[in-house]
């Protein structure tokens, strides 16, 4: 898997849990986190704070789940 695969996966879903991404790509969560960190630094993805809603399903309301969502260009500050 390359970074663009992860970006495309998140683009298609808007948001996903760390667990879902790890299972989908068949790699350990720490490897996914490393790639997510790159996307976060580039301003393409953000980690949804615990208790916040990402706008997808209600799964992010579950405690102790790491959810990441795509930052759309329209959401960037002026």
Give the structure's gist in a few sentences:
41% of the residues lie in helices and 14% in strands.
Structure report:
This protein has 78 residues and is of the alpha+beta class. It has a single domain, classed as Winged helix-like DNA-binding domain superfamily/Winged helix DNA-binding domain (Arc Repressor Mutant, subunit A, Orthogonal Bundle). Helix content is 41%, strand content 14%. It has 3 helices and 3 strands; from the N terminus they run H-E-H-H-E-E. It has helices spanning 3-13, 18-25, 29-41, and strands spanning 15-17, 45-48, 67-70. It has a 3-stranded antiparallel β-sheet. The chain is globular, with a radius of gyration of 12 Å. It starts with a helix and ends in an 8-residue tail after the last strand. The model has no long low-confidence stretch (mean pLDDT 84).
Index terms:
globular; alpha+beta; 78 residues; 41% helix
The dominant shape is globular
CATH superfamily: Winged helix-like DNA-binding domain superfamily/Winged helix DNA-binding domain
Number of domains: 1
Using only C-alpha atoms, the radius of gyration works out to 12 Å
Structural category: alpha+beta
CATH class: Mainly Alpha
Largest sheet: 3 strands, antiparallel
From the 3D structure, determine the CATH topology: Arc Repressor Mutant, subunit A
Helical content band: 40-55%
Mean of pLDDT: 84
Order of secondary-structure elements: HEHHEE
Spatial strand arrangement across the major sheet: 1-3-2
- Which blocks of ≥5 consecutive residues have pLDDT under 50? none
């Amino acid at each position: 898997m390359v970074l663009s695969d992860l970006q495309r996966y998140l683009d298609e879903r808007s948001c996903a849990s760390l667990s879902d991404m790890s299972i989908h790509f068949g790699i350990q969560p720490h490897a996914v986190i490393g790639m997510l960190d790159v996307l976060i630094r580039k301003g393409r993805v953000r980690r949804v704070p615990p208790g916040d809603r990402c706008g997808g399903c209600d799964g992010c309301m579950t405690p102790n789940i790491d959810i990441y969502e795509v930052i759309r260009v329209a959401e960037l500050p002026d």
